[in-house]
Amino acid sequence: MKKIYLSIIFCTFILFAIDQSLVKSDIVDITSFGAPPSSTGAPGESTCAQSGCHDDSKIGDQSKAQLLFDNSSISSYSPDEIYPISLHVQDPSIKRFGFQLVALDDKGNQCGSFIISDSEHTQILFNELEIKDREYITYKHAGTFPKMPGSHSWNMMWKAPSKGQGKVHFYFATVSANNDNSDKGDKVFLHSMSLSEKFQTDCKDLCKELGEHNQIKAFIKHNQLIIHNENPSIPILSTAIFSINGSLIMNQLSFSDINSEIIVPLQEFQKGLYILRCTTSSSMNAHTFLIH
């Protein structure tokens, strides 16, 4: 009976030890090997201070991070271009830092894609339970240690979305940790910035001359698109306006040969890049124009 009793105690001790090691391993994973997905504070997400890792932290009221594109601040992006990104954070005397970053469009969908350029310090994670379409870039364990206390940076790449996606919003959370081997007593900061889509156009509010022998001239004046036919003997049969994605917005037929000038009000048009197509009895011509 004593042997059985001692065996039971010994087995229980082993199971307890194994269980404790698993718990410790889970804590290390949470606090050191990347922020849990969906912790940036973006629409529909929690934050690093609420998702079970730094749950006693308060959101900081002063921005301590800066997101740079090719080492500079920008306000717009070119579709399909790949940008080097660096995230810089500063907090005096801090010896451990963390971050998570996501890029979304106006509807909250993933916008563009991240590319790992420093696999030793950063990684890409996905949320397998909810908001599954969002892509998050965050730190690895080696990426939490700054070269010098008080400041840190991470490098990565971002491929901009294809043409016509519009604004992209970057949401990112940073953590200034006290390096006490726990997830308590740390500071969390939330940040966001937006980039507009850069339209590739030479017209600068003035459409180029259209038609054979520069017959048709078009320009914007007082929020109107004015289409002028320099040669009424070759009438404009129709004018059409398309979005930059090719969707037809307006199609206007001309019922008279005397159409030296056509005026299109632009009050109902949103800001952006459009395509004007003019069809005459001898040709069809198109060019872009930009509404600010």
Q: What report would you give on this structure?
A:
With 292 residues, the protein is mainly β. The strands form four sheets. Strands 2-10-9-4-7-6 form a six-stranded mixed beta sheet, with no helix packed on it. The longest helix has 31 residues. The radius of gyration is 29 Å and the shape is elongated. The termini are far apart. The N terminus is likely disordered.
Number of strands: 17
The number of distinct helices, counting runs of at least 4 residues, comes to 1
CATH architecture level-2 label of the largest domain: Sandwich
Low-confidence stretches: 1-31, 200-209
SSE string, helices as H and strands as E:
HEEEEEEEEEEEEEEEEE
Helical content (DSSP H or I, runs of 4+): 10-25%
Gap between N and C termini, in Å? 89 Å
Strand order of the largest sheet: 2-10-9-4-7-6
Named CATH topology of the largest domain:
Immunoglobulin-like
CATH superfamily of the largest domain: Reeler domain
β-strand amount: 35-45%
Largest sheet: 6 strands, mixed
Reading off the top of the CATH hierarchy, the class of the largest domain is best stated as: Mainly Beta
Structural domains: how many: 2
Give the overall shape, derived from the CA principal axes.
elongated
